[in-house]
Amino acid sequence: MMPRFITEVETAYDKAFPDSDATCFFSESEDNRWEKKLQEAIDRGSPLTQEEVVWLCGSQQAVEDHIDYLRQWGITCKSS
User: Which of 28, 46, 56, 69 sits a CA distance of 20 to 30 A from 40?
Assistant: First the structure.
């Protein structure tokens, strides 16, 4: 697992939606689609839906694989 700096948008999202685990799935991309979606959720006042997380990850299997990967590092998502 590569350490990285937590972005301002992630911090703002976690403050706005402390019960959401969407930032567990955050990944850096050239088009910043994760940050854009997190900011959209903040702006609309509701957390990312499971469908949005699946869309951002590419598939339900990718979400499940990432949850398993996090568990191997001792990290548990709130919804897992």
Answer: 69
Q: 35 vs 38, 64, 71, 74, CA distance in Å?
A: 5, 21, 24, 25
pLDDT exceeds cutoff 90 at 80: no
The count of C-alpha atoms lying within 13 angstroms of the C-alpha of 29, restricted to the half-sphere facing its C-beta, is 12
Write phi, then psi, for 7 (nearest 5 degrees). Answer: -80, 165
Nearest-angstrom CA–CA distance, 34 and 64: 18
Residue pair 38/22 in contact (Cβ under 8 Å)? The answer is: yes
Q: pTM value?
A: 0.80
> To which residue do tokens 């979606």 refer?
37
